[in-house]
Amino acid sequence: MKKMLFAFAIAATLSAGAQNNSAVQEYIQKYSDLAIKEMMRSGVPASITLAQGILETQAGQSELVRNTNNHFGIKCKPEWTGGTYLHDDDAKNECFRSYNNAEDSYRDHSDFLKNRPYYTFLFKLDPTDYEGWAKGLKKAGYATESKYAQMLINIIVTNHLQDYTITALQRMKNPDQQMLASNTTPQQQEPTVTNVLNTSQNNNTVAAEQSTSIKETSVPAAPVKEEQYAKVAQTIVTAPSYPVGEFKINSTRVIYAQAGTSLFALANNNNISFNKLLDFNELEKTDILEKDQLIFLEKKPKKGERDFHVVEYNETIVDISQKEGVSLKNLMEYNKLSKGMQPAIGEKIYLKSVASKMPRLIARS
Questions:
Q1: Which one of 238, 270, 296 terminates a domain?
Q2: The most confident of 92-96, 152-156, 358-362, by mean pLDDT
Q3: 296 φ, ψ (degrees, to nearest 5)
């Protein structure tokens, strides 16, 4: 396995301040679809694949990638029977794998991680946990550079590569979307969040169709405008599926109640006072539910079972509180939110610990 192809100077070139250059953006545009397809096939997050590709190849500019199509610096290893290329790395004239094309390199990278026992633990992480993946790759010995994990994280955050992980997850939920993805090429990509943003800037028809009821706030590091994501997201979000009758979320009793259900009757049937039922679910005083929703029959815990939740299309902080079974008050405290604030699509909402900063927000008029 390659330990490090880049010296300190290369690492500095790919620091956060340099990641918005044209070479990086061209690399993302050219290979994002490959990263999405590989995530759907193997489970390696698209954000991680792209970040590694950018870092290992100097955004497609390195000698190794130009001569071998090797986007991830994978060395030959005893089992390798394909093409080879000698290149100076930790030592002179080390043997690196050579590929016919980028697609072969991306596939081999996924298989390399998937089939080696010291990377197995990574596939138990949430695919949206790019920080966990980046740190795990470093821990497992992918690279010797001490700041390797932070470099990957910086590239992902600065270039909004989480968009591509979310796109892959949404495609996997929707067979029609997956079929469309399989018929595209890196030059003819199905719109990702970032591509929708670029397209809408050049297409007045699409821009006219976007909803004007959702506007981006001035919260720091806002990578994607909510209304520009919405057009894609609306076509691929699937309705929730919950068991009939009582079940548990976060070890707490809950049911999925249909619109038109009487909360008075629900409280009475479960030997709960009406006011307590409202309190458990942080609801205003009302009787008839206006929409299908989760109704907790016990007080929700202060902490979730998972570390964080990634915001989906049209999902509010109240929705997340119900889906994860976490007290709304605590959820807002963990994420530095105040009443009326709503997190934007793709943002991490921490479920059991305090976030380092407030998530990017949207404002609804």
A1: 296
A2: 152-156
A3: -85, 140
